[in-house]
Amino acid sequence: MGRVTNFNPLCVLLPLFIVLAATATAQANLFLPRPRIGYYGSACWNVESIVRSVVRSNYFANPANAPGILRMHFHDCFVRGCDGSVLLDGPNSERTAIPNLSLRGFNVIEEAKTQLEIACPRTVSCADILALAARDFVVLTGGPWWAVPLGRLDGRVSLASDVDLPGPTDSVAVQKQRFAAKNLNTQDLVVLAAGHTIGTAGCGVFRNRFFNYNNTGSPDPTINPSFVPQIQAQCPLNGNAAARVALDTGSEGQFDTSYLNNLRFGRGVLESDQVLWTNPETRPIVERLLGLRFPFLLFGSEFARSMYKMSLIEVKTGLDGEIRRVCSAVN
Ligand code: HEM
């Protein structure tokens, strides 16, 4: 007996429809505006000078805003892309996740937003303001300037459960994997981690490493022995976990290669920093940045290049997002 086959036209038409729809979306995406330098043009010709002046006044009022905003930009870009999701307030928003509890400088971004809403209403995204402010703060600490591509839209979703950032005890393998997931390579990892040339960390984050590393009862053996009592004095075992210590001992407010040099001498504060020197793949990059190995890398220009890349992670355009009226809430 011959088999009876029921031909269902949907079996052919559905896949065809899916292919056509995907092609149409891909083509439409080609025409969506991509972030680019000079994006706002006459729609907000003074966007850069407004952000710069807000950044300047806040830097001189409190220089700790500089590391605060640089880190905030990183935390924004690594979670749902550079879409200002880290700025949204709310019960289960990204801001409530543990790594974000110590972020600082939200008021700076909001102040710039308020001024921009007066100068060019509903035009400049909070994600763009954060990217510009991070660059401007870096410049004020002695770091490089780079042109920031603009045109990111603000996201409408911010969930604490999405926050899965590199941690202070991550190995190089794990850090590499997390950066690769954002299309950043091993050099980007080393160069961007060297953003720790400015700023501080809370004692609670790394104290174990200086007293009882991995429950050994002793400090991490990769720490320079002369550095151990120095940090132990700043972060006593039962002292305030929120007390803050420079990530780049001796040069915390200055954007320079001193952080990398500290790694070379076992003076990294975080384990995730020190392993960049002990690991055979990342050490040569540190050496090149320090001018100890050919071909040399210039820290300033490499930092600018990697920041540019980071600032374009999974950016939203078209119908993906919006221009918020205030940075702490969706419209
Ligand atoms: C590579 C993986 C990274 C890890 C594991 C890491 C981890 C940390 C930790 C644990 C702190 C201290 C937080 C606190 O106690 O408040 C910190 C601070 C900081 N991080 Fe990172 N970070 C990484 C990458 C980056 C990147 C890519 C940047 C920016 C380009 C950055 C910029 C900063 C800054 C500026 C601070 C100081 C913040 C302040 O003083 O308020 N970090 N980081």
From TrEMBL:
Ca(2+) 2 binds at residues 197, 248, 256. Removal of H(2)O(2), oxidation of toxic reductants, biosynthesis and degradation of lignin, suberization, auxin catabolism, response to environmental stresses such as wounding, pathogen attack and oxidative stress. These functions might be dependent on each isozyme/isoform in each plant tissue. Belongs to the peroxidase family. Ascorbate peroxidase subfamily. Residues 1-28 form the signal peptide. Heme b binds at residue 196. The record marks 71 as: Transition state stabilizer. One of its GO terms (molecular function) is heme binding. It comes from the Eukaryota. Ca(2+) 1 binds at residues 76, 79, 81, 83, 85, 94. Its main location: secreted. SUPFAM superfamilies: Heme-dependent peroxidases. It is found in: Secreted. GO terms for biological process: hydrogen peroxide catabolic process; response to oxidative stress. Its cofactor is Ca(2+); heme b. Residues 34-331 form the Plant heme peroxidase family profile domain. Pfam families: peroxidase. Its EC number is 1.11.1.7. Keywords: Calcium, Disulfide bond, Glycoprotein, Heme, Hydrogen peroxide, Iron, Metal-binding, Oxidoreductase, Peroxidase, Secreted, Signal. This is Peroxidase. GO terms for cellular component: extracellular region. It catalyses: 2 a phenolic donor + H2O2 = 2 a phenolic radical donor + 2 H2O. Binds 2 calcium ions per subunit. Binds 1 heme b (iron(II)-protoporphyrin IX) group per subunit. CDD domains: secretory_peroxidase. PANTHER family: PEROXIDASE 25-RELATED.
